[in-house]
Write a structure and sequence with these properties.
six-stranded mixed β-sheet, globular, 197 residues, three-stranded antiparallel β-sheet, Rossmann fold, alpha/beta, disordered C terminus
């Protein structure tokens, strides 16, 4: 059994990989959905996944940063596995990421951005912009699951435990809509027209 098969088996056993008809936060439709909160609700799984991700990252990372909400648990566990500090941004009144709670970044600091799942990379890009705004350097990105098309964000490869190719569709081209399969919106963003994860 490969490592990737082991991690995919764990995700399926815990219900983190689901089948159905889902409205993604991008506004696109999919027949499968990845909800890593299901596997991360067990602290032992979170610790194991975080240590595995930390082990596959390049050397020289100064700090780990993760976006809320889905990335926080796994980001913290990756930081623990690396023995590095961890931070997370929050959305301000304008909807943009900002650092609060006394978090800050230093110029030249080498940052690893960790998410639970990367689909379009939009949230990772937002965090990259925030990190660069402080003069810090985003050096790598990581996720439990990479379901993106390019397996990279802004040219930066995504280090992932599992890579999934899951087709997505617009409403007008969705075969699940055409077949009358009920649509479910599981994500945390309430307005899918405003962007993707």
């Amino acid at each position: 059994m490969t490592d990737e098969t082991r991690w995919l088996d764990l995700l399926q056993e815990t219900g983190a990989v689901q089948s159905g008809h889902f409205l993604l936060s991008s506004g696109r439709h999919s027949g499968r959905y990845v909800q890593c909160a299901r596997v991360l609700e067990d602290p032992a799984h979170a610790e194991t996944l975080g240590a595995a991700l930390a082990a596959c990252l390049p050397k020289g990372i100064d700090r780990v940063a993760s976006p809320p909400l889905g990335g926080i648990l796994i980001g913290y566990e990756v930081a623990r596995g690396l023995g590095r500090p961890f931070l997370f941004p929050e959305r301000g009144p304008d909807g943009r990421f900002q650092l609060r709670r006394g978090f800050t970044l230093r110029a030249g600091e080498r940052i690893c951005i960790v998410e639970d799942v990367v689909t379009t990379g939009r949230t990772t890009r937002e965090l990259i912009d925030l990190v660069r705004g402080f003069g810090a350097e985003p050096v790598c990105s990581a996720a439990i699951v990479d379901r993106s098309e390019t397996h990279a964000v802004d040219g930066m490869p995504i280090h992932a435990l599992v890579h999934l190719s899951i087709p997505t569709y617009t409403y007008s081209e969705c075969p699940l809509c055409a077949s009358g399969t009920p649509l479910y919106q599981p994500g945390s963003r309430k307005d899918p027209a405003k962007g993707a994860e």
